[in-house]
Amino acid sequence: MSSTDTPIAEIPGDTLRERIVDDLRAHIGADLVDSLVKPGDDVWVRVSTDAWRRAGVALRDMGFEYFCFLSAIDWMPSPFGKGEDDPTAPPPERDDTVKQGYAGGATRLQVLARLVHPTLHVGVNIKCDVSDSEPVVESWVSVFAGANWHEREAHEMFGIGFAGHPDLRNMYLPTEFEGHPLRKDFPLLARMVKPWPGIVDVEPMPGGSADEEGDAE
Amino acid sequence: MTSTESLIDRRQLAYIASQAADARLNVELETEGMTLNIGPQHPATHGTLRIIAHLDGEQVVWAEPSCGYMHRGYEKLTEVRTYPQVTSLVNRIDWLGSFANEVPFILAAEKLMGIEAPPRAQWIRTILFELSRIANVSLFLGDLGVQLGAVTPVFMAFRDREHVLNLIEATTGGRFHPNFDRIGGLKDDLPAGFIDETRAVMKTLRNFCTEMEDLLFGNEIFQSRTRGIGVIPKDIAMQYGLSGANLRASGVDWDLRRDQSLPMAWDKVDWKVWTHPDGDSFARCWIRLQEVRESTLIVDQLLNNIPSGPVMAKVPRIIKVPEGEAWVSTENPLGEMGYYVVSKGDLGPFRTKIRSASFNNISIVPWILKGVYVPDIITILASLYFILGDIDR
Question: Which residue of A57, A141, A171, A192 to mutate against B (max B Cβ within 10 Å)?
């Protein structure tokens, strides 16, 4: 795949991660929108929505045969905070700017998956934007059979459709359940009824008196 | 002139003829098949997994697990808690090996904060991690007998697991839910006498493994019920994201304790990753047995040279984790357990994706149960080894 002479197993981690990004770019071209290689840590790539399945196929052909997980992230800050407020009081002002994480993005919802190379022991986190008006991406079931349940879960929890999925039934919730619980605008009812006192954690640190540990560093 | 061979030949011919007659009858009658519901409350399922199997005669046409009887919404709950409070939730994912659930989450938080636990804490973490593996998998070995109708092994397993739980309790204060791991280290040091006591227990557990090997794995009935049953080829295992012993039983030499660098003590000791080429139920069970024994050896070696020093790094009283994303997974008793933690620089995680081993391991069930016989459903499920809390989270 790559033209350099070094056998792939001897390449140090970060160079290898850079090379994965380059190889993927060679496969899907401009559909690789953004990427991030954190030294000594991990690699994140973001592909365009249309290329989601194609990117999965390309990575599988590059040897990332191990399907780790598929899920989604809702980047909208929760309008309810952590449920620490008095429910009878008017809701406080909260910052509601949607800010995406590593490898950027433009939409509130993003699909996230992780694939691992079984012999190089290196993984790739792959993301793609999901449009708000039509939250549908292509299904990975025909690429990785294991994506089946993960897509069902993401569909149920985030309301993302997977085109080509054989059966997007609910995994956990009753069929007639309304709403998508892991979206940030879905309230956690237990916290809506009663404010939560546990947000301030006051347990002293172990080993020695609490004063001495203090707010070190 | 009726030799033994010809007797066997005649029997075989009669058997084939009767099968053919059955088949003809089936074609004529157009059997409709029946739907068999196993669970959610069934003694042979651990917890509340329900399986709907459509049968044709004794064979499964399709089977579909139905999850969600124990869904507790941990991913949502982590979003309204602070980082130190999350460990008490994730303790309850795989409740037989609780401490192992805490470790990857704490490691992910530490990775985002850019801190590392002191060596002594890393050592003790690894010891407790392996102890929870031993406690978890030794119960699996006993339970395996029950699934096949042998009652004795489970009593032996409960008897010897108790010693391990006592060790965990002595250290952490909790038998099942230790909640002992902290960002930056551990809550406490080891109790006095832990090392000698653990050495003795590890010896007991090795005897238990040998006992199981003789009693269960050497048993003819056990072998005929598991060998060649429920074979998972390598590529299928990869596609479904099987992990742990299930993956290694399909011949994939991959163990996250060895194949990634984590601030833990596994790379400081000498141990072996067991694999098996067969990929059948027997292989999966056999790998687990070897891993318990290997774990006791890991613990023994770790006990020899625990470094001295503090068990807690200097961390601020109020823990705020800097903005970023981190993925950490470890080789838990059930397989790869990982947390994808998204932080926004707040007191608690913004989003946590919990990748639990059993969810992936059980997602292969519709594939693997196709065409098996009804009694094999139970052995295959038992050998895949799942814990309900680990599927539903």
Answer: A171
- Amino acid letter, residue A214: G
The residue assigned the tokens 């090996």 is B97
- How many beta carbons lie within 10 A of that of residue B366, not counting itself? 17
By the 8 A CB rule, do A67 and B238 touch? yes
pLDDT classification of B149: cutoffs 50, 70, 90: confident
Task: List the CATH code of the domain at B88-314.
Answer: 1.10.645.10
Q: How far apart are CA B228 and CA B336, in angstroms?
A: 25
Query: Looking at this predicted complex, what is its ipTM?
Result: 0.82
Alpha-helical runs (H) found in B213-280: 220-226, 234-239, 245-248
d(C-alpha A36, C-alpha A45), whole Å: 6
Cβ atoms of B288 and B137 within 8 Å: the answer is: yes
Cα-based distances in Å from B226 to B275, B277, B335, B381: 17, 15, 21, 11
**Across the interface, which of B259, B316, B342 has its CB nearest the CB of A121?**
B259
Question: How many CB pairs (< 8 A) connect A and B?
Answer: 138
From first to last of the 217 residues of chain A, give the pLDDT tens digit: 444 455 555 566 778 888 888 888 888 888 888 888 888 788 899 998 888 988 999 998 888 889 999 999 988 888 777 766 666 666 677 777 778 888 888 888 899 999 998 888 888 999 998 888 888 899 998 889 889 999 999 999 998 989 888 888 888 888 888 888 888 888 887 777 777 766 665 555 565 554 444 444 4
pLDDT over 70 (residue B304):
yes
Domain ranges of chain B: 88-314
Chain B CB contacts of A78 under 8 Å are 79
DSSP string, A68-122: EEEEEEE-SPPTTTTS-S-TTSPPPP--------TT--SSSEEEEEEEEETTTTE
Can you tell me the distance from the alpha carbon of B329 to that of B354, in angstroms, rounded to the nearest whole number? 10
Is residue B240 a contact partner of residue A146, using CB atoms and an 8 Å limit?
A: yes
DSSP character string of B50-88: EEEEEEETTEEEEEEEE--TT---HHHHHTTS-HHHHHH
Looking at the DSSP bridge assignments, the partners of residue B181 are B186
CA distance B173 to chain A (A): 14
pTM strictly above 0.95: no
Residue A214 Cα, gap to closest chain B Cα (Å): 6
Query: Min CA distance, B261 vs chain A (Å)?
Result: 10
Domains in chain A, CATH or no CATH each: 8-213 (3.30.460.80)
Amino acid, res. B147: Q
φ and ψ of A165, to 5 deg:
-75, 135
